[in-house]
């Protein structure tokens, strides 16, 4: 396997762990990157940033810094993305087929076991 650097998506920043997770869509047209700020950045197949949205905590009373995003997975049709968080919840966001479509939460799965969220991220999408 040969790897080739094509471009830099995020500029280098001071500190560690600025990116918590990444995922490619099934059709290879979208690439999602979640930063430590809990913001999901969406890139097209050419590496151009096309969209972004903020994730939500399970309960707003604990604040935005009460959780971290630990995993993401696209649906097979690449119109939804499941996001597993450390506050034991999985949100499924409908991101749409076109760039600029409104990002809305269409499902949420509350987990009683913190270790089961990874299994749900993979299995919860149709």
Give the arrangement of secondary structure elements:
Blueprint: E1 19-24, E2 31-35, E3 39-43, E4 49-54, E5 69-74, E6 80-85, E7 89-94, E8 104-110, H1 117-123
Antiparallel strand pairs: 1-2, 2-3, 3-4, 5-6, 6-7, 7-8
Could you explain the architecture of this structure?
This protein is mainly beta and 126 residues long. It has a single domain, classed as 6 Propeller (Neuraminidase), CATH 2.120.10. The chain contains 1 helix and 8 strands, in the order ββββββββα. It has a 4-stranded antiparallel beta sheet, with no helix packed on it. A 4-stranded antiparallel beta sheet has the order 5-6-7-8, with helices on one face. The N and C termini lie far apart (32 Å). Belongs to the IFT172 family. Pfam families: WD40 (PF00400).
What are its keywords?
single chain; about 130 residues; mainly beta; Neuraminidase; 4-stranded antiparallel sheet; 8 strands; globular; WD repeat; developmental protein; WD40_rpt; WD40/YVTN_repeat-like_dom_sf
Short account of what is shown:
This protein has 126 residues and is mostly beta strands. It contains one helix and eight strands.
Q: Which regions contain 5 or more consecutive residues with pLDDT less than 50?
A: none
CATH architecture name: 6 Propeller
- CATH names the topology as Neuraminidase
Number of domains: 1
